[in-house]
Design goal:
Blueprint lengths: L23 E3 L3 H10 L6 H23 L2 E7 L11 E7 L5 E7 L3 H12 L7 E7 L1 E4 L5 E5 L13 E4 L3 E2 L3 H13 L5 E4 L3 E2 L1 H10 L3 E5 L1 E2 L6 H4 L26 H6 L4
Parallel strand pairs: 1-12, 4-5, 4-8, 8-10, 9-11, 10-12, 11-13
Antiparallel strand pairs: 2-3, 6-7
Helix pairs in contact: 1-2, 2-3, 4-5
């Protein structure tokens, strides 16, 4: 993460200033930054990592959905209505419970983030209008080991998505290839969503370019921007100023500084 306090957006107390455009939101939250630093530490215990991962995704979801999901005026009785029959009602904005949301679990790293998002959403929206899809993306390789495509045959998708909000809580926004492939799969087989919300906990400039170009309805909310392999001149500028020169991926497409292979770390599975 490379955005010092001087780069805060003066018009916002929750988002860092950048030049990636209005569809990108990089949260300015030191609690989340501290959590991500701990998640990325080689010394973190697995139980602590999982608790922090859930907290990060609760925060990302609260922020993104609080700004992006439809709202409507409601009148709801509170417990105080027993003592104050006229005044004991909440009257104001709330989520439109009729909103349809499809949460996408991109296996493996997305399993826990997707479950966190799904459980929070069904507690506030009509639970029949919120669903959790599972995308299994296995690489297809040739005899020489070169990747030739992606196999999604093991995926479990619950139906059409027209008019829904598609939520993609995949934790590591590296190349963007996984998100782009997921979006293409839905577009080819399951319809067009009303909006797409991508929720990587860490994102690179390469990821942002790829996913923004892939879908015009997509917005990104992330807790941290990583462009640690950019040269010093670029790092001294507001993110996005020299987007074509920014670099957050090493030769193996891992994020730097990043948090390592989260799919392996979360699942204690190193193959």
């Amino acid at each position: 993460m490379d955005a010092p306090p001087a780069q805060r957006d003066p018009s916002s107390d929750w988002e860092l200033a950048h030049r990636y455009g209005p569809r990108v939101h990089i949260l300015d939250n030191v609690f989340l930054l501290s959590a991500l630093a701990r998640i990325g530490s080689p010394q973190v215990a697995h139980r602590d990592l999982m608790a922090l991962l859930r907290t990060v995704y609760q925060s990302l979801l609260v922020t993104a959905c609080g700004r992006e999901l439809p709202r409507r005026a409601v009148e709801r009785q509170t417990r105080m209505a027993a003592a104050h029959p006229q005044a004991g009602f909440y009257r104001g904005p709330a989520f439109d419970e009729r909103t349809e949301v499809v949460v996408v679990d991109i296996i493996r790293a997305g399993i826990v983030p997707a479950q966190v998002c799904f459980e929070l959403l069904v507690s506030l929206l009509d639970e029949q209008r919120v669903r959790l899809d599972h995308l299994t993306m296995a690489r297809r390789s040739d005899a020489q080991g070169h990747v030739t495509g992606v196999d999604l045959s093991g995926s479990k998708i619950g139906g059409r998505i027209e008019g829904s909000v598609l939520l993609l809580p995949d934790p590591m926004g590296a190349t963007g290839a996984t998100t782009v492939r997921a979006l293409r799969h839905y577009a080819e087989h399951w319809g067009k969503p009303a909006k797409v919300i991508a929720l990587p906990m860490i994102a690179t400039p390469e990821y942002l370019r790829a996913v923004l170009e892939a879908n015009a309805e997509l917005v990104v909310y992330t807790a941290r921007l990583d462009r640690g392999l950019s040269d010093a001149e670029v790092l001294a500028t507001i993110p996005g100023t020299h987007w074509d020169r920014e670099k957050g991926l090493d030769e193996q497409s891992y994020i730097v500084p990043g948090a390592g292979g989260m799919g392996e770390v979360i699942n204690n599975a190193w193959c």
